[in-house]
Amino acid sequence: MTVRLDHTIVPAKDKIASAEFFAEVFGLTVKSGQGYFAQVQVNESLTFDFGDEPEPWGGHHYAFHVSEAEFDAIFGRVRAKGIPYGSGPHSHTDGQINTRRGGRGFYFEDPYGHLLEVMTVPETGS
To answer: Are residues 121 and 67 in the same domain?
Structure first.
C-alpha cells in the first residue's frame, strides 16, 4: 500500500473564516456539515481540517503543487485580494514569483500567519 496523507489539522482563531479564505483563494469549497472541524476537500484524497485552537501556535507552512492553469488562477485571486506575496519563505512579501526547478512559485500568508506556497514543479520529485 502507498502511504498517503489523508488530512491535516490547521489551527485557526476562527475555523470558518480560515477555511473560507483558503477555499476562496484555491478555488475550492468548504464542506457542509456540522462538526468540530471546518473541512476543505483539497483533492480526492486530502482534506484540510480547520479547527479553533487556543493560541499560541506558530504559523505552519503548507506547500501545493498545481498545474500552470491552477497557478494562474490562484495567483490571480491572491493579487485581486491585495494579499502580499513573494518569491521565498523569508521573502514572502517582495512582490516577486520564483522560477526554481524550471517552474513558477510564490508564497503568501493567510490571515492567521500560516505560510502557503504554490508551485508548478514539485519540490519532492514526481
So the answer is: yes
